[in-house]
Design brief:
It is built from eleven helices and no strands. It has 279 residues and is an all-alpha fold. The longest helix is centred in the first third of the chain and has 30 residues.
Length: 279
């Protein structure tokens, strides 16, 4: 199926949106629009072309669709939470944000059996959970019914998407609480503004390649950290301005030879170091 190119274009649009706007409500609204469009295009691909095998269908509904659908759930919830967020004292804002985290945690408790199945990477029930036309009576029905249909849904793909979205939301809310508390305790300070004596002396493209690799492997915040957030940390840590990093990423993706030049070089130099240490 030709959905990989569609997803890559979608991810690039979202990264551009989030890196260029600080207005969280605008980002959420625009994110919803982009995501709905992508889901409709994905559905068209699935309905028209289908799958070559059961394994391909399972992979799509376990990994691909939730990756996109989680963004829709995330932006809808984000808009709802932020639009109702009190603009009063730090104390009331922190209480409100903590309450929102608790509500999200309830979902994990209500879906504990499947949550553990998904988290431990189990596959024994994949044909029941991620093939269309199967039902799971143990699973409580959830919201977001407007995209559920027999041709484009399984009994658990939306549960996976919801877990991914809520993971990311909890990280976002915890960061907002940290910003509020830090600013309240020391109004002159700003999180992440400590100066570093380290300087990145490689190319900007190399660092951007590394950041995207770390983002996609899920090693930071279980893969829920934003590229914008990670880029800012690396800029401050290494005293560098990365500029238009999502545009650089597009250039990396368009390379004719290896798309992972810097990562390949890292493997080579580290392997050489191991060999020298063994001598």
């Amino acid at each position: 199926m030709e959905y990989q190119e569609l997803i890559a274009e979608f991810e690039t649009k979202l990264e551009a949106l989030e890196s260029c706007n600080d207005d969280v409500l605008y980002v959420a609204e625009s994110g919803i629009t982009h995501t709905e469009r992508c889901i409709k295009n994905l559905r068209k691909e699935v309905v028209e072309k289908g799958f070559d095998s059961t394994q391909e269908e399972i992979f799509f509904f376990k990994h691909i669709k939730p990756q996109i659908f989680s963004k829709l759930i995330y932006y809808v919830k984000l808009y709802n939470i932020e639009s109702k967020r009190p603009r009063s004292s730090t104390k009331f804002q922190v209480k409100y944000l903590n309450n929102q985290i608790n509500k999200l945690q309830v979902y994990f408790n209500d879906n504990l059996e499947f949550y553990h199945y998904y988290r431990r990477g189990a596959t024994t029930l994949d044909e029941q959970y991620f093939v269309r036309g199967r039902s799971d009576l143990r699973s409580p029905t959830e919201t977001f019914h407007f995209f559920i249909d027999e041709q484009f849904s399984t009994c658990q793909d939306i549960t996976v998407a919801t877990i991914m979205a809520f993971d990311r939301l909890i990280v976002y809310l915890q960061q907002e609480i940290e910003i509020l508390v830090t600013h309240h305790n020391n109004p002159k300070s700003h999180p992440m503004k400590q100066s570093s004596k380290l300087f990145w002396t490689g190319s900007k493209t190399d660092l951007i390649e590394l950041i995207y690799a770390l983002h996609n492997c899920g090693a930071i915040n279980s893969g829920t950290a934003d590229i914008k957030e990670m880029a800012l940390v690396f800029e401050q840590m290494f005293n560098i301005d990365l500029g238009n990093y999502y545009h650089t990423f597009i250039e990396i993706r368009a390379r004719k030879n290896s798309k992972t030049k810097f990562l390949d070089r890292l493997i080579d130099v580290l392997t050489k170091r191991f060999e020298e240490s063994d001598e």
